[in-house]
Specification:
This protein is mostly helical and 94 residues long. The protein contains three helices and no strands. The two termini are 34 Å apart.
Length: 94
């Protein structure tokens, strides 16, 4: 067995599992940090839109942004689960 095959088949898969976990957990933190960054620097974005909707009491906009963020986080978690199944075939869903 070549060194390349050992690295790609065994070492990479075992090393990638914690990285995928951290990436999946960081998504919600990044979205929360975007609200703070956009309000401090005056950048247009989803976080600033959410803050303006809260100030103006636009409940439909608040619901839309929360739904959009929730769907995005769910899709990221789904992709993390699918990558887990690829990296570790012993994981079974069901």
């Amino acid at each position: 067995m070549t060194e390349y095959r050992v690295v790609t088949r065994h070492a990479f898969r075992n090393a990638a599992i914690p990285v995928v976990t951290v990436i999946g957990l960081s998504v919600a933190t990044l979205l929360g940090g975007s609200v703070i960054m956009e309000s401090i620097f005056g950048l247009p974005g989803l976080g600033r839109l959410m803050l303006e909707a809260i100030r103006e009491r636009e409940f439909e906009m608040i619901q839309s942004v929360v739904l959009l963020v929730g769907v995005f986080v769910m899709l990221v978690n789904l992709s993390v689960d699918l990558v887990y199944g690829f990296l570790n075939p012993q994981i079974r869903y069901g």
